[in-house]
Amino acid sequence: MYTGIVQAVLSIETLEHAEGVMRISVRFPQALLEGVQLGASIAFNGTCLTVAGIEDDLLSFDVMQETLKVTNLSDLEPGSLVNVERSAKMGDEIGGHPLSGHVLDVVVITDIVVSGQNKTLRMKAPEYCSKYLFNKGYIGLNGASLTLGQVEGSSFSVHLIPETLRLTTFSDSQVGDKVNLEVDSQTQIIVETVGRIMAEKTPR
To answer: Which has more confidence, 116 or 95?
Structure first.
């Protein structure tokens, strides 16, 4: 589980493609290396990955084809910046809302409005995602826990304060960028359950 509070923005050191897998390597600051071991879970842009190699401060992760299909990790290259969060430990404060690290799909930034030190991003999700999007609902975007602003069908906005911009890659976002979307798990369960019940009650 993750808290949705991004701990660092790190750069992809190396990237290698092999059959059915992409291996990325990232250098971690000492503050995020404490207790790390093979098999540990770390989220990159909100995508839960497993530590597959450790060489001093250089950690390596294998990204499977299915993950590449549904996330923006397929667009990474050496030097790309990613939001990073270590998995939460029992007793950790959850300053955002719980995230699983399981990305539903990618959304695309369609508009950016800067107002003083704040920034509003307008995004377009795949149509099937619209049933999970509600005004003031919670979502995860590139691993950051955020509150939905205005929702119109599968389009929505999020308002970013200076602290969020400082701690995430959203400070450098551009129109057309792909962003990983994770919807609130409770919302998803309720929507899917109600949908099944209504379908069962509908006369055939």
So the answer is: 116
Both structure tokens of 103: 């990305």
Contact assessment for residue 179 and residue 106, using Cβ atoms and an 8 Å cutoff: yes
pLDDT category at 19 given cuts 50, 70, 90 is: confident
Structure tokens at 89: 């430990």
CA–CA separation, 86 vs 99, rounded Å? 12
With beta carbons less than 8 A apart as the criterion, state whether 184 and 97 touch: yes
pTM: 0.91
Q: Is 189 left (phi over 0), alpha (psi -120 to 50) or beta?
A: alpha
Mind spelling out the 3-state secondary structure of 92-150? CCCCCCCECCCCCEEEEEEEEEEECCEEEEEEECCHHHHHHCCCCCEEEECCEEEEEEE
Q: How far out from the chain centre does Cα 66 lie?
A: 16
CA 91 to chain centre: 22
Residue 90 confidence (pLDDT):
65
DSSP 2: B
CA distance 43 to 98: 13
> 148, 126, 129, 141: which is closest to 85 by C-alpha?
141
Tokens 């990790």: give the residue: 73
- What is the reported pLDDT for 196? 79
